[in-house]
Structures are given as C-alpha cells and as structure tokens.
Amino acid sequence: MPLRPALAVVAAAFALAAAPAYPPMDEAEAERIYLERFRAMLANPGGEAAAYDPLEPVRGASTPRGLPVARPEERGLAPGAIAGARAVAEAARSSAFLVWRRGALVEESYFGGVGRDTPLVSRSLAKPLTAIAIGRAIALGHIASLDQPVADFVPEWRGTPKEAMRIRHLLDMRSGLLAQGFSPEPGNPWSRAYLHPMHERIIVEEYPLTDPPGSVYEYSNVTSELVALVIERATGMRYADFIGREVLAPIGAAGGDVWVSREGGLAHSGCCILLPARSYLKLALLLLEDGVADGQRLLPEGYVAEMRQGTGQNPHYGLGVWVAGPYVERRGWANPGRPAPKVLHSEPYLAGDTFLFDGNANQVVYIVPSADLVVLRMGAAPPREPEWDNATFLNRILRGLKPGAGALAAAAQARATIIFLISAIALAGFSPLGHTVAQFMMVWQR
Asked: Which of 296, 300, 340, 351 has the largest CB neighbor count within 10 A?
C-alpha cells in the first residue's frame, strides 16, 4: 500500500542508498561520443538518434499470455469498418494495426515484413509507460504519492527552485523544465540531454528550469526521462528490470529492449523502448481495466482516472496520456499557445471518454472504455497526402459499432462531459473522495 508522507522521506533515503550505481566515464571520452552521436543525428533525415546503442534487455513474461480472438461481428463491430480502417492503416505506412473489442482481438494485421514478435520502437508511446511505472511503484510502496517531491529521489535539487517539482509534474508535463526544442549547435541542452552518454548527470545538473513547477505545460523529453532515474532510486532496481518484472510480466506481455546512455547507464524512459505490438496493446488493456490484469490490481484504485484528467494548462494531456477533452481541430505536443506542428482532428472523437497513447510518426493507441475498445496503429510516419487525421481513424471504427453507434457515441459524449466535470472537482488532491467518485464514474461508463 502507498506510504504515509511522514515515512516517505525515510523510505526514499534507504532506497537511494540501494539505487543502482552508474559506471564512471572519462569526461573527454564522454564528450567525444556525444559529438559523434550529435553529428550522426544531424545527418539522419528523421532528426532522431542514428542508432539506439547500446540496448539493455527488458525481460517481460517468460511465456507471454495469448489473447482471445473473435470475428468483428461476434463483438458487435461491422467487418466493413475494420476493413476500411485496415486499408487506411496500410496506406499510412503502418507496421501494425490491432483492434480489441469486448474481451477479444478482432483484428491483427502487420505490414512490411513486421510480425507478431517484431520489436517496434515506441517513440513517445514510452511516455504512458512512465505513468504506469510510477503508478506501479506507488502501489508497491516505493513512492508515497503523485505529490511526493521529486527531490526526495533527486537530492541534488534540494535548496534549489527545482525542489518544488512533484512526481505528477514528470507525467503531466508541468515540470517547469525547458520546453522541447532543436538547435544545430552541439552545445544545445536538448541534444546533450538526448545523446550524451552521461545522460543521468546532464538531465539533473545541466537541463534548465524555466518556470515554477506546476505553473505551465511545456512538453519536453527530459521531463519523462527523469522517470527512469526516479524509479531506479525509489526501487533500487534498474528501470529495465522494474518494467520487465513489475509491469510486463504481470500483464503477460513480451519484453524487448530499451536504449541506455551507455553500458550500465540510465535508460531513456521517455522515448526509446522496443516492444512487440501486442505488448503495447496489453499496456492499454491494463488501463482499460482500471489497472487490473488477470484479477490482480497493479495500479492504485483511482490512478487510471487520475491519468485521464487534463490540467488547467492543457486540457488535452493527463498523466502520460492524451484525452479527448474539448474539441479543437488541430492539437500538438507543445504548449497549446505556442506555434508548433499540430495533428489534424477534423471532427470530435465520437466517444468523449477516449484517451490515448500518442507518439511521433502518428503512432497511436486509442482506449475507449464506453465501447470496451482499444485500437493500435504503429509504424512509420504517414505520407503527407492524404493528411493523417487522428479523430477520423478511430471514428471510422466507432461508426461500425452495432447496434446504434450514433446513440452510443452521443451517450458516451454526455457521460464523458459529466465525468470530466465531476472528476475534475472530486479528484483535486487525489483525495479518498476523488477515488470513490472516479471509481463510480468509471463503472457507470461501462
């Protein structure tokens, strides 16, 4: 059970003493490797690291659990809706397209030589995993709550403005750290945090705070990368080991690999894990089932409801996941008030309780509790024409629900509006009342 706050600092101190140690590295050699990686990134048309090297194994379930399979019509879905979405996914250069409906896999297609066991690069689909990892650590008693100070696990920040940062701020992008950006100059903080082999030192000591924690939404990879450091210092386990043993294995999911800054270095928790498509689907199913897998509660009661709440600074982003929220035609990862690339949503989501994993290259995993539905699309970035539309891809499937898709969608939208208003009040402070109301509302949706 979660620790009482009075014991949290003591527990954190013991955990810090047992945290994995990172191997020493010559500073000059570290800088040489950084510059080599930086130049390779600039030469990469995708603007990403040229290679995830080295990789550390993430061992999931020794024998991944199978998934029930059914025909779409057996689960109240029109086959034509699935076929149409499959055609869109294939044309969008997808690697995997999976659909789960009412307890069964009703669609599983792979493209371009990818198969069921092929590890797929997460990109920012790793960010919902960081929220799941924190929730699991809370359930196991390693972290007191979402409002525990990050400085309990990063004591280097005590006595500095970063001391005000809370665990939740690492998940809802309100850390106050410098917003994500790009520069072709090698000394820029974004590239150093992304590529430097002494990753754990750079993100703690060099990456700047620009705003008071909790005051503004600013998307940054470093904010999510800090989760690996917190997990390791809170649990005494390597991030890869914690994810494999405490998250993937209990949900019966296959493991894979995660990029680490150097052999024995810190994992890149915010961007760079490689897992088969079914493992990402099973992570979504854990959230669809309110943090319970195979009858075992893995996340605290009320935690998934908390994940699904946007903030005043960004109503479309919760704890590592995006939410339907109020309709806007285009929305992107950056602060809503900043000019930045935005993804088309040509219509509102038909189910207002939709929430999703959403990453670079339009990799997306939609979760729709009111329809008992999960839809996954992973792969390369779609062609520019036709433009990818986040909402219509899911809505094509929702319109195929039988019977009365329109009525279901309208009811879901009404329920979601009520849930948003009540939960926003009741969940303030993650209170026991908030837990109770959130649980009732989630049951009501279903």
From this structure: 351
Q: Distance (Å, rounded) from C-alpha 86 to C-alpha 99?
A: 10
Residues of the chain with CATH 3.40.710.10: 5-63+122-278
Is the Cβ–Cβ distance between 377 and 97 less than 8 Å?
A: yes
pTM of the model: 0.90
Question: What pLDDT, in 10s, does the model give residues 318-329?
Answer: 999 999 999 999
CA gap 208, 160 in Å, rounded: 12
299: exposed, middle or buried (C-beta count within 10 Å: 0-12, 13-18, 19+)? buried
Contact 210, 162 (CB under 8 A): no
For 215-259, write each residue's pLDDT tens digit. 999 999 999 999 999 999 999 999 999 999 999 999 999 999 999
Max distance between CA atoms of the chain, in angstroms, equals 66
Quote the Cα angle for 148-9-231, to 5°: 60
Give the N- to C-terminal CA distance of the chain in Å, as an integer: 27
